[in-house]
Amino acid sequence: MSRTIACEDRDFVAWRGGADHALIWGVLVDTDEVRAAVDSARAHWADVLLPRYDRQPHVTVGYGGPVPKAGAAPEDPPYTPERIAAARATIRGLGIEPFRLAIGGWGTFRMTPYLCVEAPELDALADALGENRRRPYVPHVTIGHYGVEVPLDEVAARAAAWCPPSIEPITVTGVTLLRYDAADIAGPLTAVETVAF
């Protein structure tokens, strides 16, 4: 039987290799309704989650990598200005126009539970930015990290008793490059730039 993976709220020193920050491409969905749904889910599953998750609601569509730093040796290739420029051109080349995405329902990976997200444009962005090459892409808004190891079936069974706040479809007008502190697995995101549709 599959079980959750208990995460640790700590600095993963070997992974970041001295890098201070890392970058992802994402769609920000930091609205009152989405925050209320995340807060509601965190309260419902509080006993199995790490106590802290400070990242704003967002849907990742591409992992960039660590921000280059002299002397750093992270496990992942640094996300250089040249790679950012190539990703920016790729996003613009897709010709995506503003679109609406739906958020609702509960799902889970082994390390993190999430709110389900639907919009075909997200899959196109993930394909273009390489997210599908890392793992099968599942658009989602992360609720937090599991802090204990328990059977996934037991965690999932509790979704039937959860009544999430309703969320109106959200209009997406661009993709944002987001930075986070590489030493903090649950720290906030900072917007670096947005590629508008």
TrEMBL record:
SUPFAM superfamilies: LigT-like. It comes from the Bacteria. InterPro entries: Cyclic_Pdiesterase. Pfam families: 2_5_RNA_ligase2. This is 2'-5' RNA ligase. It comes from Tessaracoccus lubricantis.
